[in-house]
Amino acid sequence: MIYIFTWENYFRKRLLNIWKRSFTEKFSEHNIIYVQNVFEYDLWFFEQNLLSNGFFSEKNLFIIDDFPFWWDEDINVDTKKIQEFFLNILPKINSDNIIVFNNAKIDKRSKLYKEIVKIWEIKDFSIIDEDDLIDKLMKVYKNRISRNAIIKMIKLKWLNFSIISKELDKILITKDFIDVEDLVLVSKDIEENIFEIILDLLNLETKKSILKLRELANFLDNPYLLYNSLASNLRVYFYIFKLKIIWKSSSEIKEILSLWNRSFLVDKNYKIDKKDFLKIYEKIASIDWKMKSGKLLWSENEDMMYEIERCLIW
Question: Do 237 and 265 meet the contact criterion of CB atoms below 8 Å apart?
Fold first, then answer.
């Protein structure tokens, strides 16, 4: 039996712990083989153990972290060798053995993934949308947090279960129950601020977008960090819009861009014309080229902010 556990670490870790406890009770903890780095083992080790029964019982439980690798084809000879080894050995693995590939990101285009998914099971703990995240958090924290507090946390931290759960766990050290007023000291992430700025921009709220941009700039006091974050997030929308223009479906776009927790961006509707947005992105992207070529030199942070704002006004 072969499984892939992927995406949110909290759920992967919880399920792995349940499986390890259950396996230990039924068989033996000595038959649990935990591989944190496949490069630390020779291939004969995997071949010897995966193809045979356990020593203390008939079963082995293999947990292999950070594998399969993200790349389908890699210039690294060792990496490619390991991928090919597992690809060839999968059909021969002893049916009594349980193998769990535990990885935050899985490349669904890879040969290894396609072979595993044909026969075995993928446990994907990705967050589909805001409602899915709310449901997961409500199940985890049960009667220790209000639904309104969860909605507020999502506004502050976006669709990131790991970050939200860490913040909630810290608050629960001193609180038995969390409500909206208990989140007063929780601040927005840069990512969430950038998301709101872009959302306003895409809905033709240019003035609101620029005001929020200035507020964030004053907080960060680093226009270069702000620019890099803005440009990298706009790039995601750039590719989404480009793929929509050539009539790619939502599911195709999500898979091509490997969006996972940001998949909901594909299905959102915006007021801005796609071609107008592409013009804005091209202007933003040109700042990077101008900086590297020496065509833009600033003496003050305000100069950089002026250039960014100029690109958003179209």
Answer: yes
**Distance between CA atoms of 36 and 284, rounded to whole angstroms?**
41
Kindly report the CATH number that applies to the domain delimited by 190-312: 1.20.272.10
Lowest-confidence pick of 67-81, 247-261, 286-300: 67-81
Which residue type sits at 303? D
For residue 149, give the amino acid letter: A
| Six-digit token string for 19 | 């499986």
CA angle centred on 241, ends 238 and 245, rounded to 5°: 135
pLDDT per position as a tens digit, 114-169: 888 887 888 888 777 788 889 999 999 988 999 999 998 887 777 788 888 888 99
Token readout for 145 is 């947090």
In terms of Cβ atoms closer than 10 Å to its own Cβ (0-12, 13-18, 19+), residue 136 is buried
**DSSP secondary structure letters along the chain:** -EEEEEE-HHHHHHHHHHHHHHHHHHS-GGGEEEES-GGGS-HHHHHHHHSS--SSSS--EEEEET-S-S-SS-S-HHHHHHHHHHHHHGGGS-TT-EEEEEES---TTSHHHHHHHHHSEEEEE---SHHHHHHHHHHHHGGGB-HHHHHHHHHHH-S-HHHHHHHHHHHTTT-SSB-GGGGTTPPPPHHHHHHHHHHHHHTT-HHHHHHHHHHHHHHH--HHHHHHHHHHHHHHHHHHHHHHHTT--HHHHHHHHT-GGGTHHHH---SS-HHHHHHHHHHHHHHHHHHHHTS---SSHHHHHHHHHHHH--
In DSSP terms, 123 is beta-bridged to 5
Domain formed by 2-125, architecture: 3-Layer(aba) Sandwich (3.40)
Q: Band the pLDDT of 78: cuts 50, 70, 90.
A: confident
Which of residues 190 and 283 earns the better pLDDT score?
A: 283
